[in-house]
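HUMAN:
Just now I want nothing more than another pair of eyes on a protein record. I would be glad if you read both lines and explained how they fit together. I have put the entry right below:
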Amino acid sequence: MTTNPLASRPSGASVVIDMTLLERLVNAVEKVGSLNQPADDLRAYTPAEAAELLGKTENWVTEAIQARRIPFTYVGRSPRLTAAHIRWVLENGEVQPNQFSRKRAAVAA
C-alpha cells in the first residue's frame, strides 16, 4: 500500500514547491488543452451555429446559401461557413446613407 507523504506532515508544516516545475506543468496542461480545440480559422460552422453568431435564423442562412447570396464551403455534402465567411456577411451587409438624398421634414405632432 502506498502512503501519502503529505498526509503525515503536521498541520503547521509548509510544503516547498519548485516554481519552475510548476510552470512547466501549467504550460504542458495548457498545450494539451489547446491541441483538442481546432484553430478558429479552421473551424467550420453549421448553418445553425452561423445563424446564432449572425443573429439570424437558421432558415435565413440556409436560404442565403441556396440562393448563393453569402459565401460558404462544403464539407462533404454539408454546407459550412468559416469565420472568414461570417465576417464577410457582417462587413458586406453594411449600408451607408446616401449623401444626395433629400432630408425628411420633421413631422409636426
User: Anything to note?
Assistant: The chain has a mean pLDDT of 83. Strands lie at 44-45, 73-75, 78-82. The radius of gyration is 28 Å.
